[in-house]
Amino acid sequence: MIKVGDTLPDVTLQEYSEVEGEGCRIGPNAVKVSQAAAGKTIALFGLPGAFTPTCSAKHVPGYVEKADELKQAGVDEIWCVSVNDAFVMGAWARDQKTGGKVRMLGDGSAEFAKATGLTVDLTAGGMGIRSARYSMLVKDGKVVTLNIEAPRKFEVSDAATLLAQAKSL
Questions:
Q1: How far apart are CA 115 and CA 9, in angstroms?
Q2: Mind giving me the DSSP string for 99-155?
Q3: All domains of the chain, ordered by start, with CATH?
Q4: Alpha carbon distance 164, 132 (integer Å)
Q5: Catalytic: which of 55, 64, 78, 146?
Q6: Residue 21 above 70 pLDDT?
Q7: Rg of the chain over CA atoms, in angstroms?
């Protein structure tokens, strides 16, 4: 399992864009984690699934709400990573109004979740292998803080906790 001091796994996530931008076309775009994290401080949080109750009602909204404060504390980008495809993550981004605040990154085959060791088996509930619920601060690709939730909990991976950690660095 990934721990403080480790480097993020060098995998590729997918991000859906509705408008063309610098180096970005409409539709899913590959996001190579090592390149995207280089030279940046990232507030990264993982969760089990798009449109699920806690994720939609608490986890993502907290990061959207605290985005400006996180940036004032030195965070360059906020990433939400979930085992969903880029199209679902794009629809969820619209629903959650994350534009310009939180990058919604799809880990469709759970490569990132598996490479970090932060998986949870939700097969019994029909969801398969998913990401555990967690948050971390990452500086230049290295994990600086890591907050992993106990099963079915939402106590340490919230935006307020990560914001306090960012301010203390």
A1: 6
A2: TTT-EEEE-TT-HHHHHHT-EEEEGGGT-EEEEPPEEEEEETTEEEEEEEPPTT--S
A3: 12-168 (3.40.30.10)
A4: 22
A5: 55
A6: no
A7: 14
Distance CA 145, CA 164 (A): 11
Distance CA 48, CA 54 (A): 9
Return the amino acid letter for 139.
K
Q: Is 24 a catalytic residue?
A: no
Q: What is the pLDDT of residues 97-138, one digit of tens each?
A: 999 999 999 999 999 999 999 999 999 988 889 999 999 999
**CA separation for the pair 64, 67 (Å, rounded):** 5
- Reduce the DSSP state of residue 45 to 3 states and report it: strand
pTM for the full model?
A: 0.94
